[in-house]
Design a protein that fits this description.
About 45% of the residues lie in helices and about 15% in strands. The chain has 16 helices and ten strands.
């Protein structure tokens, strides 16, 4: 067992309650209200919620509320554009498609690197993706990034399946457990649970080489850049908390993800720890894959650039100011 792992378990098991961060603001008069949505209920889209629960955004006079959780990537992007909320955790594909439609949405950060965080889970007797021919597969939506990547993976295996949009991972899990579907896409936490409990087979989904993202709008940037800058400071501080304080983070995320088994929560934290980036500068190395998917619907997708869909200036400013380096100074 590594030194980090031993220390992590000591911190976790010794934490009877989740400590509150010091200095949480109690002044409602000066708080700026900010609404956020998430496409998925997943650890890699938990940064806004975690920062709000831990008091990080409150310390910055931001009252952050999650007004839509696990509503689907396309829905999160569409709601952001409508003005239902100011920020959203979603995928690159919904953002790129909305930009190609002429809508206002922009990527501000990529909290993690790209990693296999979702899996096509099949019943025990279906040992390969080709076995899904003519079968029913549970997905989140018809057009979201995860759902499109799932369909592509199955089609590459030579199978033509039917797809049931079930909106949430927990519904996909329940439907697969009940035998209502033959397979379904699930996040890494439910991948381990399903394999252990039901003997399901797991096949990783690779989402175009682009990670999950955190987005806002150019309109908000133009009208209140300091608010966006302050949110991004809190966002980076929350990633620092995630990477350095498992005693606080693991109990919170176990509650957020409804994980009752503390060992499962600890293992999931350890799995995600290395993929969260200290500096979440927008990184879209797989953009060509996004272009290839969208060009059949939008001819202008062929010339889509990172600058069209992302604004790295906020993270770049935090880097140049030394803000991020100071957070991690002296091994904290």
């Amino acid at each position: 067992m590594s030194l980090f792992r031993r220390r992590f378990l000591q911190l976790l098991m010794g934490a009877a309650t989740v400590p509150a961060l010091v200095g949480r603001s109690s002044s409602a008069e000066t708080q700026r209200q900010v609404r956020v949505a998430t496409g998925l209920l997943a650890m890699w889209q938990s940064t806004a919620w975690l920062g709000a629960e831990a008091g990080i955004f409150g310390n910055r006079q931001i009252e952050m509320s999650l007004t839509g959780v696990a509503i689907g990537g396309p829905q999160a992007a569409a709601g952001l554009i409508r003005g239902d909320y100011e920020f959203a955790h979603t995928g690159v594909l919904p953002v790129a498609e909305e930009v190609l439609k002429g809508n206002d949405i922009v990527i501000l950060a990529t909290p993690t690197t790209e990693f296999p965080n979702q899996f096509i889970m099949t019943r025990r007797e279906i040992a390969e993706l080709a076995g899904l021919a003519g079968k029913r597969v549970g997905v989140l939506s018809e057009t979201g990034q995860t759902s499109v990547a799932t369909r592509i993976a199955i089609e590459k295996a030579g199978a033509v399946a039917t797809y049931a949009p079930l909106v949430r991972f927990d519904r996909i899990y329940a439907a697969l457990a009940a035998g209502e579907i033959d397979a379904g896409v699930l996040p890494v936490d439910l991948r381990f649970v399903g394999a252990n409990r039901y003997g399901w087979n797991a096949f990783p989904v690779y989402e175009f080489g682009t990670p999950s993202i955190f987005a806002g709008t150019r309109k908000l940037i133009a009208s209140d850049r300091e608010l966006v800058m302050n949110v991004m400071r809190g966002f980076v501080e929350t990633i620092h908390l995630f990477k350095t304080r498992p005693d606080i983070v693991v109990p919170l995320l176990a509650r957020y993800l409804n994980i009752e088994d503390r060992k499962v929560a600890a293992d999931l934290y350890a799995f995600h720890l290395p993929v969260f980036q200290k500096s979440p500068r927008p990184s879209l190395g797989g953009l060509q894959n996004i272009r290839d998917v969208l060009v059949t619907k939008y001819a202008t997708a062929a010339s889509l650039t990172e600058a069209d869909i992302a604004d790295a200036s906020f993270i770049e400013q935090l880097e140049s100011e030394g803000f991020i380096d100071r957070l991690y100074r002296d091994g904290r």
